[in-house]
Amino acid sequence: MSADARIEAITARIVERSKPFREPYLDRVRAAVSKGVHRSVLGCGNLAHGFAVCSPAEKTALAGDRVPNLGIITSYNDMLSAHQPFETYPALIRQAAHEAGGVAQVAGGVPAMCDGVTQGQPGMELSLFSRDLIAMAAGVGLSHNMFDAIVYLGVCDKIVPGLTIAALTFGHLPAVFIPAGPMTSGLPNDEKARVRQLFAEGKVGRDELLDAESKSYHGPGTCTFYGTANSNQMLMEIMGFHMPGASFVNPGTPLRDALTKEASKRALAITAQGNEFTPAGEMIDERSIVNGVVGLHATGGSTNHTMHLIAMARAAGIVLTWQDISELSDIVPLLARVYPNGLADVNHFHAAGGMGFLIKELLKAGYLHDDVRTVYGQGLHAYTIEPRLGGDGNVHREPAPHVSHDPKVLASIEHPFQHTGGLKMLSGNLGKAVIKTSAVKPERHVIEAPAKVFHDQAELNAAFKAGELEGDFIAVVRFQGPKANGMPELHKLTTVLGILQDRGQTVALLTDGRMSGASGKVPAAIHVTPEAIDGGPIARIRDGDLIRLDAVGGTIDVLVEAAAFAARTPATADLSANEFGMGRELFASFRAIAGPADQGASVLFA
């Protein structure tokens, strides 16, 4: 089935807008491809360094360019649950490459930090910028010019977007992303959130809180709620970078290992030495990007991707805007209820039919472009499957179920949870912002209340503990943008504002910072741009100003007479405490040149 006419129109607009960037990008990709297998351009000394530790047989093969060499870019470390499984992957990939008649080498590692560890801590101010640093680090690994294709091992928040930027920068090379999968289900996410609220209210102690957190985050794999990490996996599959069905298989299982080996062999099969050459820069086009946005809306995915997708697209010469994302949100229905948008976790989503069922339903109604290239071949229809481990130890695929195994978690296209996507773009006299609506009750989609202004989340939490947050209000937390302090997540606000809302107060959040996929039941207008440090309108808000947040109409306004508001002197903040400690001094140049949120908050494409 062809795509819905509205989807086609938005895609065509992106194509036209992107031409000044996309066409030169493709020219560069094709020029790099035309040079052939790249080891042939290396001098003997260069090549000797490149394969010094290989076996004699591998050296002979690589010296003559007779076999493909598979590069591995890995985000492995053994502290973080999501990346610990990658420890064993290089051995599996080398084995698979040998079986396929190729060679595999670890080309380089990239940093992988965890927003869960750094929430509310100074290190969180490095988080967003780590995306661009990861792309740069991968570029260093690939600069040796030794490889015919690349497999990327990454899962979490900034890692996959950073690796995607790298894959598209080296777009002349085929790229396959290999995930680790989610940890098995532990303490339900809603129970964890309940204990957090009790702790914030002083009703349970630290021991009880740590016990609940440890039972929720308890083993290898990604966290099981639907935040940025699992939104990443959905994106890589629906955009065609994963093998079909690879996203949500648990680590340490025979099927997970079989998928890893299969992906490695497939990467070797799509090099220029074979008959299915699939350079990443040619494979990913405007249709692939639109498919990613559609998947984000249909699943109620992370708000971080309103920035990441823009930066990822830009790496391929594609200009995606918040307006495109917003218009797609008005078209695409919400088909998934995964915490914080529901009670289920990603393992329940996978069991209900997972990506195969989701893609099948979206294709059925024309919400996706089927006529795309993927690492698996031509057409997204090939992804409407469920993976199984065959008796031969290899991956086998069955058609996705005709009906959801759990309609409370994964809905059909005929009976969606809501008729619009889970994200909404806002604009008004305060600038532009993003709101995640999929977890917010409809009666809270329009909020009009006076402002209470803070310059960091610690100020708001202190006001809560002092009993100063009474009545209805919209919390304005500013000087949290990319240039101010690296745009940290403000996750510690979730619990406090949730408590106040549960007490019957009407509350909302307005910030130039981030809330990520953890944005929950409280209305939160985030990523406000222009940010406060640039003198954006958010810097002129005062305590008591009436603010109207309308997630139905897509507006965010301060209800102050225009001339009087414009005449105000923007507030300033002492940000010196954010400039040093925990590595923040190393990122001063990044803060200075970071682009605005609606352009990807990037230092690479500013």
From TrEMBL:
PROSITE patterns referenced in this protein's UniProt entry, alphabetically: ILVD_EDD_1, ILVD_EDD_2
Which keywords does the record carry?
4Fe-4S, Carbohydrate metabolism, Gluconate utilization, Iron, Iron-sulfur, Lyase, Metal-binding
The protein's required cofactors: [4Fe-4S] cluster
**Which domain of life does this protein belong to?**
Bacteria
Q: What sort of enzyme, by top EC class, is this?
A: lyase
Q: What HAMAP family does the entry give?
A: Edd
Q: What is this protein called?
A: Phosphogluconate dehydratase
Originating species: Mycoplana rhizolycopersici
Lineage start: Bacteria, Pseudomonadati, Pseudomonadota, Alphaproteobacteria, Hyphomicrobiales
**Encoding gene per record:** edd
